[in-house]
Amino acid sequence: MQPHTGCRHSTARIRKPLGNFAVAALVVFIIAGLIKERQLLTLGLLPMLLIVVLHNASGLAFGWITAFAMRVSERDRRAVVIEGGMQNSGLALGIIALQFNSDLGMVTLASLWGMWHIVSGMALALIWRRKDARLAD
């Protein structure tokens, strides 16, 4: 008799609904934050958002190119891509708060950075999940 068999079955049953709930909660949290701070959302943010997107894309691309050049497996290549593309925006906010007296422009940029990383990370996860599902069929 194997111990904890019931736990393993329960875990498998709630894994997908719990994952969906976590994603939905994250999206609601981001939307609520954007609504609360809507006065900061102006057309002046578009150039900053472009910088954030290009910075993230270059990190993701450099991670992919580097991992491909090193001939690592597809699974490990994905890990390198995520590590290269997802910079630590929480650390950036902490440094801005301590070293730059919470400069609003810098905080706004780091906040955009963090939100964009969520979007790009979730998009990559979805793309890779669908690719794996197609290959499994």
Polypeptide structure, described:
By secondary structure, this protein is mainly alpha-helical. The chain has two domains: 1-36; 40-136. The chain has five helices and no strands. Helix 4 packs antiparallel against helix 5. The longest helix is centred in the last third of the chain and has 33 residues, at 104-136. It is globular. The chain starts with a helix and ends with a helix.
Number of helices: 5
SSE arrangement, N to C: HHHHH
Q: Provide the domain count.
A: 2
Biggest sheet statistics: none
Rg result: 19 Å
Number of strands: 0
Helical amount:
over 70%
Dominant shape: globular
Structural class: mainly alpha
Chain-averaged pLDDT: 84
Percent of residues in β-strands: under 5%
Termini separation (Å)? 34 Å
pLDDT < 50 runs, ≥5 residues? none
